[in-house]
Amino acid sequence: MPSNRSPTVSDLGEPHVKHKISHVVTLALGAAAGTSNGWQLASYDVPLALTVSSAFAVFACVHLGAEHLACLLSGTTYRCTEPGCAFRVRVTGVNAAENRRWQETAAAHPTHRLVRP
Fold first, then answer.
1. pLDDT value at position 62?
2. Fewest beta carbons less than 10 Å away: which of 33, 58, 109, 114?
């Protein structure tokens, strides 16, 4: 029978919480960069539409770049053991059993994508 209680931090698991924290941090970095850009443009009397669009563009670029960097730093990549094969799997926020399963999948996948020089 399903429970009606809300999930707690221990139910969600530590990787889930770390992902939420990194997401909030990357949003804050993007907001700070976008606000700084908007403030600087406004001080030069740039039209409002141009200032807002530029600030949103800077926010999006910084947020997405920082999010991508956080994903690269927090994940694990498994590559095929076959020489010359370009197959790889990136996993984040999984338990040990799931990690092992992806490691075995990368080592024994049926199709090998060979990199041609």
1. 97
2. 114
**Would you kindly state where each structural domain of the chain is located, as residue ranges?**
13-74, 76-107
- Give residues with Cβ within 8 angstroms of 19, minimum separation 6: 74, 92, 93
pLDDT of residue 27: 95
* Residue 33 to residue 39: CA distance in whole angstroms: 10
Low-confidence ranges of the chain (pLDDT < 70): 1-16, 113-117
Distances (CA, A) of 15 to 65, 75, 97: 20, 10, 14
